[in-house]
Amino acid sequence: MVKVMSWIYLVAAGLLEVVWAYFMKQSEGFTRLVPTSITIVAMIASFALLSMAMRTLPLSTAYTVWTGIGAVGAFLIGTFLLGEPANAMRITAALLITAGLVLMKLS
User: Fold this and answer.
1) Confidence (pTM)
2) Model confidence pLDDT, tens digit, residues 6-34
3) What angle separates helix 33-53 from helix 59-80, to the nearest 10 degrees?
């Protein structure tokens, strides 16, 4: 059960990484109060959950999955909410990151 909770913490931490990355973009260089505040709170929560997950998960797995969720999530947010380009190479890169996350979990 502890291992399951660690994975829940890790996924939540990764999702919060996406949240803080998005709001960091919205903060316009930390010049807007609300997006800056959300960025800081989400960062702290993300790091706290990552730390809790690392109590039982290996560093290599936890950190890789955390950054992978953040990278793919940021790509999706950028593409669908911010109108950033989604060409074949960028989509392939996101799929390769996702494949790496699955392999890391299975290992």
Assistant:
1) 0.89
2) 999 999 999 999 999 999 999 999 999 99
3) 150
Instruction: Assess contact for 72 and 18: CB atoms under 8 A.
Output: no
Give the pair of three-digit tokens for residue 9. 């913490």
Percentage with pLDDT > 90 across the chain: 89
Q: Do residues 59 and 51 touch, judged by C-beta distance below 8 A?
A: no
How far the first Cα of the chain sits from its last, in Å, is 19
Do the beta carbons of residue 66 and residue 10 sit within 8 Å? yes
Could you give the CA distance from residue 45 to residue 39 in angstroms, rounded to a whole number?
10
- Residue 76 half-sphere exposure toward CB, CA atoms < 13 A: 14
3-state secondary structure of 84: coil
